[in-house]
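Let us work through a complete example step by step.
Step 1: write down the sequence.
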Amino acid sequence: MRQRLTLDPQRTALVIVDLQEEQRTHPLYAVEGFDAVLDNARMILEIGRKRGMLIAHSGYRRDFAAVPKRPLEHVAADGGPAFSHKDSPNTAICSEVAPKPGELVIWKNDASAFCEGTLEPALRRSGIEWIIVCGVWTEACVAATVRDAIAQGIHVLLVKDACGSGTKAMHQVATLNLANRLAGGAVADAVSALRLIGGLEAEVWVAERPVPILFGYDDAEKLYHAL
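Step 2: predict the structure and record it as tokens.
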């Protein structure tokens, strides 16, 4: 259901998940509509900085020396990581949302931005109650980050048009699945997120109970846009 929400910018952090060059250049793993996702995240980041919010960037860099290959993990022909090799320049965070000095940067070997153990303590030290999440891929690293935040009692504002995946359908279905289990959180678009960061009230979508959205092939897109 939709309801009005306000956020305290000083108790809200921005978590940007895996907005890396690989997501727009890789022939197999580029994100559909990445330029729009990136532009929305950039606008949110700029306003968040002006409001003095805690900013955290996460990026995926697979490093077998740090975390050995998992038993069933896909690998490249040379035995190295199948994608996001730690030495690849394409793992760099996109210049449009590149970290500034003093902002937290987390290089991770797994999906969630919480997996390295540095994000949660940083949020706690700053008294953060809400995180605003932007990034890719919605069903993978974004979803893992959202679920870990909820498990730790941190409210999540998921910005649906500042996230993306390999296809529009993958992103929309993933967003609906997250919305169905977004306990204590909300889904918003970038315009509403910008209002909230500015200390203003905005209308967002919240789950009034577990799994309030039952969707099928015929209505998933319509329900996504209604969030």
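Step 3: interpret the result. The chain has a mean pLDDT of 97.
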